[in-house]
Write a structure and sequence with these properties.
The protein has five helices and no strands. The protein has about 170 residues and is mainly alpha-helical. The chain has one domain: Ferritin. The two termini are about 15 Å apart. The structure holds MU-OXO-diiron. MU-OXO-diiron binds next to α1, α2 and α3.
């Protein structure tokens, strides 16, 4: 059994991960609409990653005998105006996800819930990578993407991204 504070936070995090998946689906559609299929693919992988994160939290709850409470998933509320802005929103959203994970970690630390801390360690590392990846894409778009040829090549590169299932086993 887990402390109620942890249960509530993880239930909320499950919803946030599903929301993140939904948000990236909206972004993926935004790019496919413009025939930027490589960007659409890159965001499609984000969709799968966030869904996988939600399922990891969900499984952790079930493995600990806790009830999973699914809430409504909010409509994506970020306006998608141009490529640079969508990429920056992605980076900012990853920073926000990191904050959510850290907030759970703080409570687990206070409760001396070492099991949950160990579970969250994977997410802390993963978020470091997600922040770096999304920031890197912002930077590369800034450098090459505003030129038509550069955008074409960046889009082609992003079309090669494939989904790798999380390495965390629960
Ligand atoms: Fe669920 Fe991109 O973090």
């Amino acid at each position: 059994m887990l402390d109620k504070r942890i249960v509530d936070l993880i239930n909320s995090q499950i919803n946030k991960e599903f929301y993140s998946s939904y948000l990236y689906l909206d972004m993926s559609n935004y790019f496919y609409d413009q025939n930027l299929n490589g960007f659409g693919n890159w965001f499609g992988i984000q969709v799968q990653e966030e869904y996988a994160h939600a399922m990891l939290f969900l499984k952790y709850m079930l493995n600990n005998g806790e009830k999973v409470v699914l809430d409504a998933i909010a409509k994506p509320d970020i306006e998608l105006n141009n490529i640079a802005q969508v990429l920056e929103e992605t980076y900012q959203h990853e920073l926000l996800i990191s904050k959510w994970i850290n907030d759970i970690y703080v409570v687990a630390y206070e409760l001396k819930d070492f099991k949950t801390m160990q579970f969250l360690d994977w997410f802390v590392k993963e978020q470091g990578e997600e922040e770096q990846k999304s920031n890197d894409l912002c930077k590369r778009y800034e450098l090459f993407g505003t030129d038509a040829r550069g955008l074409y090549m960046l889009d082609a590169e992003l079309s090669t991204r494939v989904f790798a299932a999380p390495s965390l086993v629960i």
